[in-house]
Design brief:
Helices cover 14% and strands 61% of the residues. It is built from 2 helices and 8 strands; from the N terminus they run H-H-E-E-E-E-E-E-E-E. The longest helix has 18 residues, at 2-19.
Length: 167
């Protein structure tokens, strides 16, 4: 019976160690087994549209990220918003994203895609940074240059947002 208890104890220690529960120094992505940025996310943002005057914009976003390598992610995001001026304008964009995890809590990414801005076919290109604030909640800052298809960039969209990552 003594050998059985030792075997059970050794198995328990190995199991908890492999889960990261026996060591407080395990990184968040090691605990979950994936990047904290991987998977579905949704959130809201507030910011400004510079076209050439500044107006406040609010909106939301939803997307999904996939891990390509240890530090590289790729994904797609839908975002839509409206300006708070009179008359209000709106935007709806589908963006492809590629990002690099600096560490388990910080993601830098580039984004590009197309959609509609105030009833005009448009494109956007830019990037941002996301930081895990607590558990599955993150904050981000994003800057996008926008323009009508066939023309150069003629406006900027600068936003701060909060997201919930589904793990």
């Amino acid at each position: 019976m003594g050998k059985f208890k030792k075997l059970l104890l050794a198995s328990s220690v190995m199991c908890f160690s492999s889960l990261g529960l026996a060591s407080g120094s395990q990184a968040q992505s090691d605990y979950y087994g994936i990047s904290p940025f991987e998977g579905f996310y949704a959130g809201a943002y507030v910011g400004g549209m510079l076209d050439p005057t500044a107006v406040t914009t609010v909106g939301g976003m939803a997307g999904v990220n996939f891990v390509l390598t240890d530090n590289i992610l790729a994904g797609v995001e839908m975002q839509g918003g409206a300006t708070l001026n009179d008359p209000a304008t709106y935007d709806a964009l589908m963006l492809g994203r590629v990002g690099y995890e600096l560490n388990d809590m910080t993601l830098l990414y580039g984004a590009a895609g197309g959609g509609v801005i105030n009833n005009i076919g448009s494109y956007a290109i830019g990037g941002g940074a996301e930081i895990i604030a607590i558990d599955n909640v993150g904050v981000r800052a994003e800057a996008l240059g926008t323009g009508s298809w066939g023309a150069g960039l003629n406006a900027s969209k600068l936003t701060l947002g909060a997201m919930w990552y589904v793990q």
